[in-house]
Amino acid sequence: MAAQDVDLFVPTYVSRSGITASRAHLEHFIRDHQLNRYRRVHVFAFIAGAWTLNPLLEQGGLPNLATIIYDRSPLQERAPRIAADKLHFLTWLRYGSPVFDVANTPYTPLAMPNVKVALMVETRPTSFIEHYEKAARELGPFRFPCDAFAQRYDDCLFLPMNHDDLYSRFPELWPEILAFIRAGRFSPQANRTAPTGDPFAHDQSH
After folding, report:
1. In angstroms, rounded to a whole number, what is the distance separating the alpha carbons of residues 73 and 107?
2. For the segment 143-158, what is each residue's pLDDT rounded down to a tens digit?
3. Which of 22, 35, 153, 169 gives the lowest tally of CB atoms within 10 Å of its CB?
4. Residue-wise pLDDT tens digits, 49-63
């Protein structure tokens, strides 16, 4: 990324106390690293990160934001609710309040009009979601089309990955992220076709 004239910041901000405390940590990170010195800032937000970040952005917490790319998943976004319902005590013991906050807080889409917005949609279940497939299905149909996420976007693509893959294979995402940063669009090669069929079937088609 440095070779492409991009400085990378990875905040450690999640607090066991919950999303509100995590948001305060993120605000301190932005201030402590003087992100206001950049003409343009681009953000990649994993799922819980969007719940934390969006209200801060709406309050003017990052006025030089130019681009934000959201990781979304109709599968993994059910994980907090399932963990809270099925593994309540163990979830609290390991993670504290943030999982419960995400499970109980409706998603608030970003309304800033001058920011380029993209979605990267996971299409595969993690082992956790596979283990709790019945509980995941009970929360309603899985809707993958970009419009199903009820937020505006300038471009949207679909990844043959699950949530764990995004952390371990993030370098594979970088070419498309860079394309969106530079042009406000993913590359022509990006998969923009929503998957069809059962997401738990290994032969799911796109």
Report:
1. 13
2. 999 999 999 999 999 9
3. 169
4. 999 999 999 999 999
